[in-house]
C-alpha cells in the first residue's frame, strides 16, 4: 500500500479553489454538527528563534466522506529576510481513518494558503453584501493572493485596493492580478473603505482604523493567530457583528484575544461561530434577523480546514495521477 508524496506544484494542481471552498464549508458544517474530533492546537514557542511550531490534528466526517490528518506548521517572521524562506512552512499527513494508512504526505505551506483563502471566501459568502465589488487587502504577502483568488469566486470583484509598507510586495501583487482586476495601491484606510476587507498581517498594534471602514464592510481578520496579535481597532470590534471560527482559539489567539483579555469584549459581543451560520442556525446577511452593518470574521484556522483541503487535493491527485507514490508503510505483520 503506497503513500503519495505531493510537492507544492502537486498541491497547487489539485487545490481547485471552487472545490476547496465547498470542502471548507463542509468542515464548518461538520464542526457545528459535532462530526469532528479536533484536539486543541498545541504550540512550541521558540523565542530564541523568533518563531514557533504548532501541531494541528483532526478528524472530520462530511456527508459522503471522512478523513483524518495532522499538520506540523510554524510561524517564523524572520524567514523571508534571513533565510529567503516563507514565514509559514507546513507539512500535512493525510490518513485513512479506517486503517490509519497515511494516504499522502503533502506540502502544507501551499495547502495552508489555499484553505485560508477558502475560509475567508466562505465567511464572505455569508456575511458580505450581495453586490460587493470592491476588495481591500492589507498585507501583500503570499496569503493576499489566495484571499483574492477565493473571494472573487463568491463575489464579483472588480476593484482591489492593496496596502503594504513593502513597495516591492505591492508591485508583485499588482503584476500578478493587474490584468484580471482594477488593482491599485492604497493606504490601510482606503482598503478599509471597500465592500470587503481582508487583513493578512502579523501586527500587534491595530492598523484598521474604525472611522475608515464602510457602513456595510465585511472584514476577514486573518492575521491574528497567536496571543498579542491584533489588526483591528478595539472600537470597531466593539461595534461590529463578530463571527468567529472557534471560541477557544479566538479568545486565546484570534483577532479578539487582546481586547478580550482586557475585558473590552465578552460573550455577549460574539454573534456566533461561522458553522452556525453555514448550517442555518443563525441568519446570514440578507436574511431576516441577520447582520446589517459592519461584520468581522475572526479566523484562527482550524485543523479540520486542513483535512478538508487535503481531501480535495488527494482526490484530484489520485484521479489525475499527480504526485509520487512511494512505500512508506511496512506492511509485514
Automatic annotation (TrEMBL):
The keyword NAD applies. The keyword tRNA-binding does not apply. InterPro entries: AlaDH_arch-typ (IPR028609), NAD(P)-bd_dom_sf (IPR036291), ODC_Mu_crystall (IPR003462), ODC_N (IPR023401). Pfam families: OCD_Mu_crystall (PF02423). One of its GO terms (biological process) is alanine metabolic process. Keywords: NAD, Nucleotide-binding, Oxidoreductase. The active site is at residue 71. NAD(+) binds at residues 115, 142-143, 164-166, 223-225, 229, 299. Its EC number is 1.4.1.1. GO terms for molecular function: alanine dehydrogenase activity; NAD binding. GO terms for cellular component: cytoplasm. It catalyses: L-alanine + NAD(+) + H2O = pyruvate + NH4(+) + NADH + H(+). It is an enzyme of class 1 (oxidoreductase). Belongs to the ornithine cyclodeaminase/mu-crystallin family. Archaeal alanine dehydrogenase subfamily. Catalyzes the NAD(+)-dependent oxidative deamination of L-alanine to pyruvate, and the reverse reaction, the reductive amination of pyruvate. This is Alanine dehydrogenase.
